[in-house]
Every structure is written in structure tokens, then in C-alpha cells.
Amino acid sequence: MLMSGLRQLGLAVAAAMALMIAGSAAQAAPENVGPEECKDCHSPEYAVWEKTPHAESYKDIHKRDLADKVTEALGERSMKRSDTCGQCHYTEAPNRPGGRVGNNFGVSCESCHGPGSEYINIHNVYGPKGTKKEDETPLHKAERFAKAREAGMRLPRWREDVPDMPTDVNYDVAANCFNCHGMARETLEGDTAGKMLDAGHPLNPDFELVKYSQGTIRHRFYHSTQDNEEMTPAELSRWYVTGQAASLVQAANAMQKTQHAKYIAAQEARAEKARAALGALDLAEAKALLAQPTEANAKALVGKIYGDKMDLSGQVGSMIPPKSEYK
Ligand code: HEC
Ligand code: HEC
Ligand code: HEC
Ligand code: HEC
Fold it and tell me: What residue stretch is flagged as signal peptide (predicted)?
């Protein structure tokens, strides 16, 4: 009881400080609400998610031998309680509405879409009370997505029907996969990552966005709750390039974190693949990114290919993994 009281006090102080820092924009720091809060309105997406390793591994990943080895190597006692493991394996959220906050779910909606407390009641409101979807004004739509983004939502895709949506938003959701799958998270110290690898923690240099996002985790119910749509070849080509751009930037940054040889080699292998893919593009933005793998250059490339609705299958089509390889 005392601990949870202190914890709540800590959270309250943290929230108050975040408010002070935010100043006049006074918005509370976004927190996770947990996937159960998204379920009622997003049942098709939830049904896909609950069968993925992201959701399922929560049950038993901490029981694997490797979990003990890695946890011990960092001098921690429990995978489920560890903040280090939590940033990639768990969603820290209340176990039920109003319940106890902890690592209560695996990788879930908010791991990818952003902590929901501040956008959950913004992203789905079409106008003054009672306004229907088809009656939303373009101005309201533009504001709705801009506000949701400001409130911590990582928008899942660029939408032509939303006026003024930046054309590079897809970069954010793609780069976020590599935070975990590339062990490139800014909050993960290089030396900690090195110790994890030494203890046998995987770092898969073959993680590629199309292959890993279009199989089991795909949820694209854009037109009907029955139809989980596949990407068109043009969409696949843009998504593939977005993944390679994010991979290159994340790997280049991660390499600077540590001297750990194995970690650097894995990041180098990833960067090498991304350079080969991006090298096939006949675009000034791709050349600039190859010369200088910065986030700004990656976003310029992603913004260009979505904004101009390019079909790049002629240039990268042969490199995109076939459906039979989707995870
Ligand atoms: C009360 C119902 C409701 C709840 C709760 C809710 N959503 Fe939504 N959400 C919607 C509606 C309605 C839309 C479609 C908005 C539109 O038509 O643009 C939507 C759209 C989305 C989109 C897609 C945006 C796009 O570009 O197509 C994402 C991602 C999303 N919600 C994530 C979440 C997550 C994550 C949660 C839980 C933290 C959540 N939602 C909770 C109703 C809800
Ligand atoms: C930077 C993100 C990140 C952090 C931090 C992290 N993991 Fe992982 N972990 C992953 C990813 C991604 C995978 C899946 C890798 C794959 O399958 O390619 C994984 C896989 C695992 C696996 C399963 C491996 C297998 O092949 O069965 C275990 C066990 C594991 N992690 C334990 C831990 C423990 C314990 C900690 C904390 C000390 C931790 N991880 C911290 C990202 C992370
Ligand atoms: C591993 C990351 C990840 C997780 C976990 C995840 N999403 Fe998504 N989500 C995405 C990506 C990426 C897209 C964009 C898909 C596209 O357009 O290709 C997306 C798209 C969506 C959309 C728009 C497409 C549609 O089906 O209407 C909604 C809504 C959504 N997600 C809600 C959720 C909810 C709710 C959960 C949890 C039950 C969830 N997502 C879990 C990554 C994720
Ligand atoms: C918060 C960290 C995190 C994020 C963000 C994340 N993942 Fe994962 N992902 C994991 C972990 C951890 C595992 C391993 C679970 C296990 O081994 O049981 C995993 C497993 C997977 C798997 C199953 C792998 C296999 O070999 O079967 C796929 C596919 C996957 N992730 C795709 C994605 C994609 C695509 C994105 C981005 C849209 C993404 N993930 C974002 C942490 C994350």
C-alpha cells in the first residue's frame, strides 16, 4: 500500500512537472490506457492483435531460460518488473480501468500508436456533439488529426482526405518498430544493449518492414470490418522504402552508442541492406539520405514518395519480400 501510494505521488509529481514544462499549452503527459480501452471501438484490430506474438508472448516470455539469463546479466531480478525490459516487451498501463499500473500487457496498441490518454477522446470526434462521420468539415478533420498527433498519437498513415496532414507521417510509425526490433531505442544505453547481446538476447538484422508488417500483424480494416486489406503494389513499394529509410537512420544512430563489436556489426549489417535498397532509387531525396543518413533526410524522402503518390515498384519491386515470406 505504502509503495503504491508513493508511486502514485511520484506519478502526480511527474505529471505536474510535465505540465509546468508544457507551460501555457498545458496538456497532461500522455499515458497508456491499455488495449482493453481500445477494444470496444476497434474489435477487428483487437482480434488480429490478440493472436500475434506481441500480445501472446506476455503469457510466457518471462518463463524462458533466456529471460533469466538476460535479466541476471543486467543485475535485475524480474523481467516483468524491469523497466529496461518493459520499454520493449510490455505496455505499462492499468490492469483494468482505474486499476493498478504495471507491466500488465505485452506489446500492444499504444506501443505502436502512442500512449492514448490524451488522444483517445480527440481522434474519433467528428465535430460538435452528434456530428456524423460524413458531415465532418475538412477544417475539423485537419484539426482533429493535428490535435491527436500533438496529444501523442503516432498517426498510422498519410491520408489524402485529411487536409494539411504532413506527407511524412509514415516515417514515425515505421521508425518506431526499429526502436524495439533494432534495439535502437534512445533510452536504451549502448552498454546495456551490449550486455544483453552477450547474454544471448536476439538482435535480428533481417527485420524488414514489409515482411514483418504484412503477415500476422496486418490490420487494415479501412473500408469494412470484415476486410483486412492487403496493400497494392504501389503501397507496398512506398512502405518498403519507408522501412529502409527508417532502418538506415536508426542503425546509423545506434552504432554511435557503444563500442560493443557484436552490436555494431548487427547495426552495420542492417545499414548495408538499407543502402542497397535505397541505392536502387532514382530520386534526389534518396541520394541525399545515403550521403547523410539523418532523420530529416529520411522524412524528406518519405514525404516525397507519399506526397507524389509514387509507384516505386519498377525500382525496388524485385527486392520486396514475396508474400510467402511474410511473418
Ligand atoms: C469510442 C470509440 C473509440 C475508442 C475508445 C478508440 N478509438 Fe480509435 N478510432 C475511432 C474511430 C471512430 C476512428 C475513425 C476516425 C475516422 O473516421 O477518421 C478511429 C481511428 C483510429 C485509428 C486510425 C486513424 C487513421 O488514420 O485511420 C487508430 C490508429 C486508432 N483509432 C487507434 C486507437 C487506439 C490505439 C485506441 C486505444 C488507446 C483507440 N483508437 C480507441 C474510435 C475509437
Ligand atoms: C530495445 C528493445 C528490447 C529490450 C530493451 C529488451 N528486449 Fe527482449 N526482445 C526484443 C525484441 C524485438 C525481441 C524479438 C527479437 C526477434 O525475435 O527477432 C526480443 C526477444 C526476447 C526474448 C525471446 C527470445 C527468443 O528467441 O525466444 C527474450 C527471452 C527476451 N527478449 C528477454 C528480454 C529481457 C529479459 C529484457 C530485459 C533485461 C529484454 N528482453 C529487453 C526487444 C527488446
Ligand atoms: C506492431 C505495431 C502495431 C500494433 C501493436 C497495433 N497497431 Fe494498429 N497499426 C499499425 C500500423 C503500422 C498501421 C498502418 C497500417 C497500414 O495502413 O498499412 C496500423 C493501423 C491501424 C488502424 C487503421 C487501420 C484500420 O484497421 O482501421 C487502426 C484503427 C489501428 N491500427 C488500431 C489498433 C489497435 C486498436 C491496436 C491494438 C488492439 C493496434 N492498432 C495495434 C501498427 C500497430
Ligand atoms: C515496443 C516494442 C516493439 C515494437 C514497437 C514493435 N515490436 Fe514487434 N516484437 C517485439 C517483441 C518483444 C517481439 C517478440 C515477441 C516474442 O518473441 O514472443 C516482437 C515480435 C514481432 C513479430 C513476430 C516475429 C516472428 O519472428 O514471428 C513481428 C512480425 C513483429 N514483431 C513485427 C513488428 C512490426 C512490423 C512493428 C512496427 C509496425 C513492430 N513489430 C513493433 C517488440 C516490438
Answer: 1-28
pLDDT single digits (tens) 76-107: 999 999 999 999 999 999 998 889 999 999 99
15 contacts 101 by C-beta, under 8 angstroms: no
CB within 8 Å of 180: residues ≥ 6 apart: 88, 107, 111
Distance CA(324)–CA(327), nearest Å, equals 9
Cα(85)–Cα(187) distance, rounded to whole angstroms? 11
Band (15; pLDDT cuts 50, 70, 90)? very low
In this prediction the pTM is 0.94
Kindly list the distances between the CA atom of residue 59 and the CA atoms of 62, 82, 89, 191, 287, in Å, as whole numbers in the listed order.
Answer: 8, 16, 11, 28, 45
Query: Which residues does residue 101 pair with via DSSP β-bridges, in sequence order?
Result: 94
The mean of the pLDDT values for the chain is: 93
CA of 227 to the centre of ligand 1 (A): 17
Evaluate: CB of 124 within 6 angstroms of ligand 1: yes
pLDDT above 50 for 12:
no
Atom of ligand 1 nearest to the CA of 155: 26
Angle at which helices 284-291 and 233-255 pack, to 10 degrees?
20
287 lines ligand 4 (CB under 6 A): no
